[in-house]
Amino acid sequence: MAVPPSAPQPRASFHLRRHTPCPQCSWGMEEKAAASAGCREPPGPPRAAAVAYFGISVDPDDILPGALRLIQELRPHWKPKQVRTKRFTDGITNKLVACYVEEDMQDCVLVRVYGERTELLVDRENEVRNFQLLRAHGCAPRLYCTFQNGLCYEYMQGVALGPEHIREPRLFRLIALEMAKIHTIHANGSLPKPTLWHKMYNYFTLVKNEINPSLSADVPKVEVLEQELAWLKEHLSQLESPVVFCHNDLLCKNIIYDSIKGHVRFIDYEYAGYNYQAFDIGNHFNEFAGVNEVDYCLYPARETQLQWLRYYLQAQKGMAVTPREVERLYVQVNKFALVRSDPIQPVLQGEASSVSLGDAKVTSHPIPPLPIRLARPVPQSSILRSGVHTLRQGGRGDRWVSREKALSLPPAPSGCH
């Protein structure tokens, strides 16, 4: 196949070049014509149509009036007096209400209002692009519209999972299959960079001046945390984990199980983007420990992880995988699991400076107090004893330890994995 004419390096992404982008690949149409070249990538899903926009602002403290105005635009045949609403309270940063007419909610519109100051953390235009991309690959509901401070989309039938559900083999197999599907969404010919380090440095910039001085005994100094962040980047970048399209926020409540269709789908794409494969999986494994009542003894055992990863790799490759392939991913995942990404909004609102996880107070890891959170017992596997400020749980013996000391720690307490 012909190659496009040479261009100065580094080559800018197609949207920065003055070319008309090909609808099927990342070359510009002018490039392809000059090179007499066809698409270098197989045709992907058709480009999504533009999303409708309404200049309506919904009051986050009184959602219903604004939501009903949007429903009049999206469902003009619905009679206002017949519209039912249901508010969801599981969200951390956003507010959500469902609007529907029929009891079965087969045609249901979700109105989501962005949380205050979330624009500091979330690129809303990128979120819409992610939504459309995932929808084009059959991984997301329909996006109906955006408005001044939110968006409206299709309700997915099913139930949101909890920590007790994602530990069940029949369900974690479905989760592994869906994650593999999302991870195979190609980058349209570009060379994506992982978002992890950019996000971490951005979060650190936002929160490092909001550390409560009263927590100085629990939280290392900013200078120490900056060193730890640099060490994390240096160490984890050497693991050669592939960069793939990731959800990046796979909390239990972001997984919807449809028992009738027998599949799961992921929701909420605010933080989706290209990132390390092992980070997305490791971040999800941390969810096994729970959210409100965190018990890291519930972090998946080696046998559970290997089975999960085998399901994932087989789905991704479409063939049987070797134990060596599974083991390699296992090592990568458990090191990336040391970084748990939780960009929780109250930190930026000055409403929180620490998070209590059961008996252990977690204030930073490596960025205090959030959004980067890491805490679990040093596992029995020696490959994981290189964590940073790893928190050991043991009653009054709880303490922070440095990455150097972590190398010589004994196994985790009995019953923990």
From TrEMBL:
Region (Disordered): 393-417
Matching InterPro entries: Kinase-like_dom_sf
EC main group: transferase
Biased composition (Basic and acidic residues): 395-406
Matching SUPFAM superfamilies: Protein kinase-like (PK-like) (SSF56112)
Pathway membership: Phospholipid metabolism; phosphatidylethanolamine biosynthesis; phosphatidylethanolamine from ethanolamine: step 1/3
Keyword entries, A-Z: Lipid biosynthesis, Lipid metabolism, Phospholipid biosynthesis, Phospholipid metabolism
A biological process term (GO) from this entry: post-embryonic development
Record EC number: 2.7.1.82
CDD domains noted in UniProt: ETNK_euk
GO molecular function terms noted in the UniProt entry: ethanolamine kinase activity
Family from the record: Belongs to the choline/ethanolamine kinase family.
Descriptive protein name: ethanolamine kinase
Originating species: Macaca mulatta (Rhesus macaque)
